[in-house]
Amino acid sequence: MSSPYDPYAGYPWQTPDPPQPPPPPQHRTPDHPPLGHHRDLRVLRTAYRWQRRVATLTALGYFTLFLILSAFAPGFMSGTVTDGLPAGLLLALLQLPVTWLAIWLYEHTARRYVDPLADRIRKEAAVDAKRESGKREADRRGTGQRETWR
Question: Which residues pair with 86 in a beta bridge?
Answer without folding.
Answer: 80
